[in-house]
Design goal:
Number of strands: 5
CATH class: Alpha Beta
Structural class: alpha+beta
Order of helices and strands: EHEEHEEHH
Radius of gyration: 15 Å
Strand content: 35-45%
Shape: globular
Number of helices: 4
Number of domains: 1
CATH architecture: Roll
Strand order of the largest sheet: 1-3-2-4-5
Length: 158
């Protein structure tokens, strides 16, 4: 239908549409989606702040990750790549995601490179806030699960 349209599955801070727009990403459509057989984790090391981790997904056959299927354009992908520090911190892969109507779509997503991962990290509370802003895209159960994630107050690093 439209030339140069790209499907992107956002599961971390990019679930905050306002945040994406501040990155100059054009969001033509945003809809709830689920990535089966993966689990959300915060194991991507911050370069400067010890103990701080950013969102990632890991394979888990009994879990699923809720997020947003975003339709954007190829030019906007460049801005997302810069924000995600692709290809240093994250690699891109294509995966099938499920929509609420039961259909599946293929979308690209970011998965952290093993060299950037470490166990035992926690997100900053402002990073988690971006995920929580997607409340109307995710189930109430998933939202409550996100609210329970132990995070680090930004004030600890000021």
């Amino acid at each position: 239908m439209y030339k140069n349209r790209v499907k992107y599955f956002a599961y971390g801070s990019n679930m905050d549409i306002e945040h994406l727009e501040r990155l100059k990403v054009k969001v033509f459509k945003a809809e709830p989606a689920i990535l089966p057989e993966y689990q959300l984790t915060f194991n991507v090391k911050d370069y400067d702040l010890p103990g701080v981790g950013y969102a990632n997904i890991i394979q888990s056959y009994t879990d699923q990750v809720e997020g947003i299927l975003i339709t954007t354009d190829e030019a906007s992908v460049t801005y997302i790549d810069l924000y995600e520090n692709f290809p240093v911190d994250y690699k891109k892969e294509n995966h099938k995601v499920k929509l609420r109507n039961g259909e599946t779509e293929t979308a690209y997503l970011y998965i952290a490179n093993d060299s950037r991962c470490e166990e035992g990290l926690k997100p900053l509370n402002n990073h988690l806030f971006h995920l929580l802003k997607a409340k109307h895209f995710i189930s109430e159960e998933y939202y409550e699960k996100l609210k329970q994630i132990d995070s680090i107050p930004v004030s600890e690093y000021k």
